[in-house]
Design a protein that fits this description.
Elements: E1 6-17, E2 20-32, E3 37-41, H1 48-56, E4 64-72, E5 75-76, H2 82-88, E6 93-96, H3 100-103, H4 110-122, H5 126-139, H6 145-148, H7 158-170, E7 176-180, H8 188-205, E8 208-213, H9 216-222, E9 225-230, E10 233-239, H10 240-245, H11 250-257, H12 303-306, E11 318-319, H13 325-340
Parallel strand pairs: 3-8, 3-9, 6-7, 7-8
Antiparallel strand pairs: 1-2, 1-4, 4-5, 9-10, 10-11
Helix pairs in contact: 4-5, 4-7, 5-7, 7-8
């Protein structure tokens, strides 16, 4: 069996605050192969972005404790020095942020920012770096790249800025690309163009992609596998088809029931998950979803509130839930019927 390109094992990321310890990520494991896309979904505060900032080594060590293991192509990242991480960031691994306007410097041209990223890791001449910037802008679909290369971020539309961010992220042909909700602020037409662009570039470069989002519709379009996070933990993992068609955790079912269906009746009311995500300063005991779960009372002995359910992943499929498979088949079917009738 081949070694995965990226591997996380029991990752824990805790922040020290004046109010106490925030357990932002609390025992997360997953693998990712080259050329594949892993979609990470969950509500705000579930630990999605914290996980990926940990992979890049971007957390402040003065108030952050990280335990576990992050292996990128065999290189352990948690114990890596800042200089080692700098050589990897923007080169072997790169990130597309949600807000391109906030991430790009307003004082430098688009081309200068892309060229600087290229020069930092290659040591090439300014002319070579500029030519590379023009090439990347052309590759991501920016019209007239030889002139737009000298424009500033405010002269680009939102969709064009996001394309420029993708060009910057891919300028050194990274093997791992982390996309943190890169289409959230874009209209649906531009969003679809960006998704197609990422898929085309992945085919061209063979890049491994982590795609963070709260939008299951986006996941259905781009992901190969899906990891569902809640309260800093993974609650479900599987292929896109498995997770979206046959959810195996009450939280995943709740997410699916709270979004509109494109092929169902238009007058069906949406069913939001009751309550709010847990405080990671003082998270619930046992299963962190149990205070909001419609099925917790079905598990005898109050197990959901006292014991953390195990996530046993077999051939890439698993869910951290105390319900038996027989219970899920009955309860999930009844629940879905109640919500959609």
């Amino acid at each position: 069996m081949s070694t995965p390109f990226l591997s996380l094992r029991d990752l824990r990321v805790h922040f020290s605050t004046e109010d106490g310890i925030v357990k932002a990520v609390d025992g997360l494991s997953f693998d990712l192969e080259k050329g594949k896309t892993l979609g990470i979904v969950g509500e705000s505060g579930s630990g999605k972005s914290v996980t990926n900032m940990a992979i890049l080594g971007l957390h402040d060590p003065r108030n952050t404790t990280m335990d576990g293991e992050i292996l990128l192509d065999g290189k352990e990242l948690i114990s890596a020095t800042e200089s080692e991480l700098e050589k990897l960031r923007g080169n072997k691994m790169s990130m597309i942020f949600q807000d391109a306007l906030a991430s790009l410097s307003p004082y430098h041209t688009i081309g200068a920012q892309i060229a600087e990223t290229y020069r930092k890791h290659t040591g090439c001449s300014k002319k070579q770096a500029r030519d590379r910037a023009i090439e990347m802008l052309r590759r991501v679909g920016i019209p007239q790249p030889d002139t737009r290369v000298d424009d500033y971020p405010h002269q680009f539309s939102g969709g064009m800025r996001q394309r420029a961010m993708i060009a910057m992220a891919l300028v050194n042909d990274p093997e791992l690309l982390i996309a943190d909700e890169p289409t959230t602020a874009l209209d649906v037409t531009v969003q679809a163009q960006i998704m197609d662009l990422l898929k085309d570039l992945q085919q061209e470069f063979g890049t491994a992609i982590i795609f963070i989002t709260h939008d299951l519709g986006v996941i259905a379009d781009i992901a190969d596998d899906v990891l569902v996070m809640y309260g800093g933990r993974c609650v479900e993992r599987g292929t896109k088809k498995q997770v979206l068609s046959q959810p195996d955790h009450p939280y995943t079912l709740g997410l699916l029931n709270s979004m509109p269906s494109l092929d169902g009746p238009v007058d069906v009311p949406l069913s939001p998950i009751p309550g709010s995500p847990p405080s990671l300063l003082n998270p619930p005991s046992g299963c962190r979803f149990h205070p909001r779960c419609a099925f917790a009372e079905k598990v005898p002995g109050g197990l959901c509130s006292t014991e953390r359910p195990k996530l046993d992943v077999v051939e890439g499929r698993g869910a951290a839930c105390h319900l038996t498979q027989e219970q899920k088949q009955d309860l999930f079917a009844d629940f879905a019927a109640t919500r959609h009738n």
